[in-house]
C-alpha cells in the first residue's frame, strides 16, 4: 500500500481567503453566544431577584438573557 505524497501549495489570495475572514467573524459571534450562556450560568440568575446597582448590576441584568445564546449558537453553527 503506497501513500502518495503531495506538495503543499502556498496560500492564495482570492474568494477562499475572503471566506476564511468571514468565517472568523462568524466564529466571533459564536464565541459571544457561548460567553452569554456562561455568564447566564455564573450570574446567579436564580439568586438575585433584583440586581445591585452600578456596573455589576448592569452585567447581571444583561446576563439574564444569556440563555438566548444557545439558539443563536446553533443557528450560526448550522447556517455557516
Report on the structure:
The protein has helices at residues 15-42, 54-63, 69-79. The protein has one domain. It is mostly helical and 80 residues long. The chain is elongated. The longest helix is centred in the middle third of the chain and has 28 residues, at 15-42. The protein contains 3 helices and no strands.
Keywords, please?
about 80 residues, about 60% helix
Helix content: 55-70%
Return residue spans where pLDDT drops below 50 for at least 5 consecutive residues. none
Class inferred from helices and paired strands: mainly alpha
Q: Give the helix tally.
A: 3
Largest sheet: none
Whole-number radius of gyration?
A: 21 Å
Following the backbone from N to C, one meets helices and strands in this order, namely HHH
Topology:
Elements: H1 15-42, H2 54-63, H3 69-79
Helix pairs in contact: 1-3
Give a quick rundown of the structure.
With 80 residues, the protein is an all-alpha fold. It has three helices and no strands. It has one domain.
